[in-house]
Structure formats: structure tokens, C-alpha cells
Design brief:
7 helices; two-stranded antiparallel ribbon; about 170 residues; 5 strands; single chain; elongated; three-stranded antiparallel β-sheet; about 10% strand; mainly alpha
Length: about 170
């Protein structure tokens, strides 16, 4: 079973796509990517095929195996907590979530993110009390909180709307 569009990439294209998802925060070096590809191949999650190149050199194309597709779906349905709470991990998870093909499972993942975002938090505290943007004199720290507030509100609205569309509003 191959999941179309999930992983049928050349190594350098895969690296570029990963960089687009993770940005400058977590750059992916070839020295990291290619050993990871070899580990996935060795585990039977990925196969490499050689296809003719556009110019002269052949290209290595990567595809998920049936076992790889099953593992991807398991990881999507049961993401680690850091994949829910870390923004870069969350965006990577979200980019592939449609491959679950199960609205209830997708909704369960979205509800975990929603619960995380609904918890009061701040980057700045007065003792144990989280500070709000309006309480800060420092315009840069206030800016951090205002930007986070705006993006959190947008994400919360999207999560709630998407949960309704998936039929997974109930907790």
C-alpha cells in the first residue's frame, strides 16, 4: 500500500519540503536526513527505487511501504505530546493529518491541540501568575504576547470550525 503524495520524493526534494515545514528553527542537514532514510529502509518502512534522471544521472525515489503507511497512520493517530505542544512539530503533523482518512481519529488529535491551547499560559510571569500583554511596559515583550494571542485566537477558531465539520465537537 503506497500513500499517494505522502512520500514519493527524491532525497533533495524531501529535504526541501521538510525545511519548508520546519523553517530556520530546525534545519535538516543531509548528514541527518540520509542516515534517517537508511534507518527507515532497514526497518522496512521505506523503499528506494532508481528512475532515469532528467539529464543523465539516475534519481532515487523514496516510497512508503505498506508497513510504513501503517506506521505513519499510527503516529498520526497517536502523536507524542511534543507533537501537540511544539508549533513546528504540530505544523508537520497537521500537514499529514489528512492521511488518517478517519474523521473521528482526526478530531481526537485536534481536540488534544485545542485542550493545550485553552490552558492559560504566558511567556512572562510575576511569580506563578502569568502576565498579560496589557500588564507589560516593555513593548517587545508586549509584542510577543500580542502576536501569540492573535495567532492562538486564529488557531482556536480554526480548530473549533474544523471539529464541527468533522462532527467531532464533543469531548
Amino acid at each position: 500500500m503506497l500513500l499517494p503524495g505522502v512520500l514519493r520524493r527524491f532525497g533533495h526534494v524531501l529535504r526541501r519540503h521538510i525545511a519548508a515545514l520546519t523553517g530556520h528553527v530546525r534545519p535538516v542537514a543531509e548528514s541527518t536526513l540520509y542516515p534517517a532514510i537508511k534507518r527507515l529502509e532497514k526497518a522496512g518502512l521505506l523503499v528506494r527505487a532508481t528512475e532515469p534522471g532528467a539529464m543523465a544521472a539516475p534519481r532515487h525515489v523514496l516510497r512508503l511501504t505498506e508497513k510504513g503507511g501503517t506506521e505513519l497512520k499510527r503516529r498520526l493517530a497517536e502523536p507524542a505530546q511534543r507533537e501537540i505542544t511544539d508549533e513546528n512539530n504540530w505544523f508537520t503533523l497537521l500537514a499529514f493529518l489528512r492521511h488518517l482518512d478517519d474523521p473521528a481519529a482526526e478530531a481526537a488529535v485536534l481536540r488534544r491541540r485545542l485542550a493545550f491551547l485553552e490552558e492559560p499560559a504566558s511567556f512572562f510571569y510575576d511569580g506563578d501568575r502569568p502576565l498579560r500583554a496589557e500588564e507589560l511596559d516593555d513593548p517587545f515583550r508586549r509584542g510577543v504576547l500580542l502576536i501569540v494571542r492573535a495567532t492562538s485566537r486564529a488557531e482556536l477558531a480554526w480548530l473549533r470550525d474544523t471539529l464541527v465539520s468533522l462532527g467531532g465537537v464533543g469531548r
